[in-house]
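User: Show me sequence and structure for the first protein, then do the same for the second.

Assistant: Starting with the first protein.
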Amino acid sequence: MSVTQSLRPIPFIDLQAQRARLGRRVEERIERVLAHGAFIMGPEVGELERRLAAFAGVRHCITCANGTDGLQMALRARDIGPDDAVIVPAFTFVAAAEAVSLVGATPVFADVREEDFNLDPLSIAPAIAAARSAGLRPAGIIAVDLFGQPADYASLETIAAEQGLFLIADAAQSFGAALHGERVGRFGHVTATSFFPSKPLGCYGDGGALFTDDDELAAVMRSLRQHGQGSDRYDHQRVGLNGRLDSIQAAVLLAKLELFEQEIVARQEIAGRYDGALASHANLPRVRAGALSVWAQYTIRVADRDRVAEALKADGIPTAIHYPRPLHHQPAYAGFPIAGSGLARSEKLAGEVLSLPMHAYLDGVTQDHIVASLRRAVAGSDVGRTASGYR
């Protein structure tokens, strides 16, 4: 049997390896839920919120049904809606723009930095100008921490304070990361995250959470999560949504949280191996000084991206494109304002990015196979180069 055949199939994210490491932890947690029968807002939800708040170093964690609901809850808590504009990066998953649209506000697309894929603070001013030109009130920013690295919150928080903007840190891909010694969860006015199964900390279904030190904001978001509830379940103080995390998903997350710190360390080691082996073969992801990425994805940049992906596929290696089309080119969002005369970096990255298998249980033999295949794919040509050269 060849090396390639013996390694097939290689999972892009290996949840089964994690499950084996967890042993009986998940089953035991779920069995407790089955025994007490409080399937909605059971004791596991409160325990998880306390432990996540302690992990992030904030006063409040409000769990919710999914990350998109979390973004909506944060926006609604500040009464952001019609005639308001919220600035979002164009190079990201659709959820940020979707949440803005669902509350009746208008997403305004800004550009990102090439080096870290995150929202460019220099694109905020032209985005504000575009919003005002469209007759909208600039009200907020959603900064998405793409691929696991926190955005430049020092700059973004300064801009938000100067312009009176509500800053949401979208940590759907970065929970567990840190910036200058502070963990994700402490940035912006509120941080939202997702526990989709493929995330660094994921449940076995949909789930999400919000983090803040603002007592009033936390109280409103808790109310919004449960149909705008006031003093009891039949007292409705505001229009809310059914955004609760169920007890079984909380139980899964509690079990996984026991291993999370170790998995973050493992992700650093795996990313370091990729860095060392691929430095001369592709444009590699960069982590800014003072930042710790949780490596939700390991995303390189190559020219002739599709050919490289096909070569890896032929060797049994899955890849993914995060993301093949920027949001301002999506049919549902094509008519919304954009910063300046165009979003060139978002468009360029969409044509070059390629995500390699990345998870805390990626063993050295498998990673060596991935590296060797990628090297072969780019050998003897310029496909590893981008307009900005190698890393």
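Switching to the second protein now.
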Amino acid sequence: MLKTALLFPGQGSQRPGMLAGLPDHRAVHDAREEAAAILGRDWRSLDDADALSRTDGAQLALTIAGVAAGRALLAEGAPIDVVAGHSVGAFPAAVVAGALSFQDAIELVRLRGGLMAKSHPQGYGMTAILGLREAAVARLVDEARAAGELYVSNRNAERQIVVSGADAALARVAELALERGARKAERLAVATPSHSPLVAPVADRLRAAIAQVALSAPAIAVVSARTARRLRAADAIGEDLASNVAEPVRWRDAAQLLGELGVRTALEAPPGSTLRDLTAEAIEAAEVVSLDGADISALARLAAVRSAD
């Protein structure tokens, strides 16, 4: 039987109006209102450019959007066999898989985003380098470190590598990358040096907080974008949620594992289509579809038909 994966994007994919623009579905309405009750604020307060420019606001909005979309798909009978989340997307993935409650996810993501914002309030961020392999980018990072702290972080695709660090070092590595043949060096809409040792204290605080919440073995298979391995036990999911903030994302490897597990249909939760494009590159035999602006019922039927083939 062919399998269906649900993918959850990370910070950088957010955009104003993303929550209001979710599919008109009862499960979506309920998830937004549930999140508002947990947060003690209207979900619309997270949906404008100002809120989404902040690390805590963006991560909360992405968590809400992911859970809402996942619940809507399941309500329509979509056969979701496996989930995977990029960075903060691991939290809605854990909720949809049945390993973590929505309330605990919201509280943990609120803590995660707040700690990240406070750890490096200004002068740091992330840059995506397109067109060079990881080894080449690693050499450029070594060169650019003379300008400030800098690390290779996300391995999103064979030729899409993200680096994290100080502004001056990011500017220098972008300059070097373009000189050495990179197609693009693009600063991301992320204001912290995520997935690097610079935010290791955030992982430590998260680990302590996660130890206080109830986690369950997942009812739906979970693939970690940090380890590119399937996570079967509750404690493994808890460690992954804590550690992924300070460790590189290995999306290319994780997507290849999805293909090895038999995934031939992958649906990306809103917003955007970043994971759609990256996953399609890694699993050539799969049909990868973004839920942005899509008909939830139609996508659920598509997944069911392909699963039955």
